[in-house]
Amino acid sequence: MGFSELISFFLLLLQVQAFSTPRNLGLVERQDLTARPKPSYQCKCYDGEACWPSADVWKTLNTTVDGQLQKVVPIAAVCYNSFEGKSYYNASACANLVAHSTDQALQIADPVTALNVLYMNDTCVPTTDPTGSCTSGYRAEYVIVAKKKQHIAAGVKFASKYNLRLVIRNTGHDFMGRSTGYGALAINTHGFKDVEFTKKYTGPGKYSGSAVTVGAGIQGGEVYKLAFAQKPPVVVIGGECATVGFAGGYIQGGGHGPLSTYHGMAADQALSFDVITAKGEYVTANEDENPDLFWALKGGGAATYGVVTSLTVKTFPELPCAGTIININSTHTNDSVLFWKAVTVFHSLSNHYTDNGMFVYYELLQGSLHVQPLLGPNMTAAKLKQVLKPLFDGLDALKVPYETKTKEFPTFWELYVDMFEPEFNAGTNQLTGGRFINRDDLTNNHPAIIDAYKLATNPPILGFGIIVGHIVGPGIGAPVVDNAIHPGWRKASSFSITALAPDTSQWNTAITVQRNITDTLDAASPKGGAYVNECDLYQPDWQTQNWGTNYPRLLNIKKKWDPEGVFYAQTTVGTENWLEVGQPPKLCKKT
User: Fold this and answer.
1) Measured on CA atoms in the order 140, 146, 149, 151, is the torsion positive or negative?
2) Residue 29 has pLDDT above 70, yes or no
3) Cβ(520)–Cβ(452) under 8 Å?
4) What is the DSSP string of 350-400?
5) How far from 294 is each of 203, 263, 271, 272, CA to CA, in Å?
6) How many CA atoms lie within 13 A of 577 on its CB side?
7) Residue-wise over 401-428: b if at least 16 C-beta within 10 A, else e?
8) pLDDT digits (tens, 9 = 90+) for 220-267
């Protein structure tokens, strides 16, 4: 089975789960209570309770936000005869949805849909059987499709006043479902698309080079394209996936990407944020104004300290780039021992790649290694081939067959369009983990790291997994920074996302399996850490794993800017005493 067939099979497994019978997953650690929690908990307010706002109160909020408040109706309600006693059935709309159920653009355009449908409890999914059951699952109850910052402020104040769970949703990309929540009021920021470039930044701080200010809803691919259109063209430090929201969780979690070895993480480039606080107030955070908030927003996690409406980041001159593709799969060898020797040769050179300013993106499955690309910023094809000589010498010495191609481009943007592939489909189920790996661990403990990779791609019971790998060394381009990103990233040369695709009966088992994978990878890379945007939600010491020595400072900032816990996302700063209780899961605080 070749790489494309393996990926298709993996996505098919994910999609089968998404079209299966709705169920109560219980994926978040919850107490199994059928009634309202005991007095040891203080919970958010939910529909059906006396504290829930009346219809007239919701109507008043809708007026306040200029008619942008919507009662949440699942996108797939058009495929069912009934949703909450009403019919939304539309045969043609349903046929289009079923045909494009994994289309990211379609899912992102919906104001509340999470691209990983697991975290909506797999309810009301696209179907060709209209007689099935469509329920709201773990979706929000209402959503404000914000068009102005005043809409966001009104929503934050409303949620605070009525003690509602609040969810901030931009593109719905979060692998761990943090942009959805049962019974919540959601605020959708995807409509904030303003972009303004400047050749000379005049704001606070020592930086006076070129910059761009973007609205919260702008996506990575959009800002890349607009940056290339400048005269002269510039680049922005963004991610691999074009559809990820640039100003949302991506940069607030730190933000690694194709040029991060060369220039540092995305959050390293931040110059200023415009924010709406837990009090619904408008503030600016930069080196001069609210510097503590500014520091925290640069890698301290999303949906934690406030709602970012716009931010300003550095831009850099465009640069020539070269890229190499390598494939090793069953069309080349079925010898698993030889295959893993090849993987070892490839990954053992991670420090070498990053020492040369490179970024490498790869996907690793059982018997399949797909590397696309090995990116060489400011390199010609000839220079890149020279840098990669140890890799090809090692593969040739093993006598492992492979296919490869190297191309050069006058700009990063042209390489990005040509060589970077779509990262994942929407409407799928997956359970993820992840870890960045320290340079010393790569040198001294690489066999154990490879053993952990073998476990992740061939997990017990489930039998199928994937690693989405990023060889990236932010400390090369930005060795010393002052922000909230885990300090360990400065000594990293590799970051791996692990993903599982269990069937509908195996989710609880999958959590246990994922914990085993995480523990094994942690033990193999003790100097590494976790990345809040792509992590194992069930890692018990997530505070230290995600932020290292920065966590105590972040916790103090959280207590200052959001003392009542208006903002919540699982395993983010200050959520130690919050948990989801019962079925459906209500967000509660231990008292």
Assistant:
1) negative
2) no
3) yes
4) HHHHHHTT-EEEEEEETTEEEEEEEEEET--HHHHHHHTHHHHHHHHHHT-
5) 14, 20, 9, 7
6) 13
7) ebebebbbbebbbbbbeebbeebbbbbb
8) 999 999 999 999 999 999 999 999 999 999 999 999 999 999 999 999
Q: In the block, which residue shows the tokens 């030889």?
A: 338
Determine contact, residues 364/453, Cβ cutoff 8 Å.
yes
> Of 530, 517, 566, 501, nearest to 13 (Cα)?
501
Residue indicated by tokens 């934050």: 156
* Nearest alpha-carbon partner for 500 in 537, 527, 470: 537
- The Cβ of residue 258 has, within 10 Å, a number of other Cβ atoms equal to 28
Task: List CB contacts of 228: < 8 A, sequence separation 6 or more.
Answer: 234, 235, 318, 411, 413
* Bridging pattern class, strands 316-317 and 234-235: antiparallel
CB 114 within 8 A of CB 174: yes
- The rounded distance, in Å, linking the Cα atoms of 195 and 216 is 10
Structure tokens, 2: 């070749």
Q: Burial-class residue 79 by CB neighbours within 10 Å (0-12, 13-18, 19+).
A: buried
Q: What is the DSSP letter of 487?
A: G
Mean pLDDT of 393-405: 98
Q: What is the DSSP letter of 505?
A: T
Task: Report phi then psi at 261, rounded to 5.
Answer: -70, -35
- Using DSSP's 3-state secondary structure scheme, residue 306 falls into coil
**What residues are paired with 245 via a beta bridge?**
219
Give the integer Cα–Cα distance in Å for 218 and 216: 6
Closest CA to 203 of 277, 260, 286: 286
- 3-state SS assignment for residue 305: coil
The whole-model pTM stands at 0.94
CA 204 to each of CA 234, 286, 291, 315, 478: distance values in angstroms, whole numbers, following the listed order: 22, 7, 11, 16, 20
CA 483 – CA 299 distance, rounded (Å): 7
Taking residue 49's Cβ as centre, other Cβ atoms within 10 Å add up to 13
- d(C-alpha 345, C-alpha 393), whole Å: 10
Confidence of residue 13 (pLDDT cuts 50, 70, 90): very low
Give me the sheet containing 578-581, strands edge to edge.
41-43, 586-590, 578-581
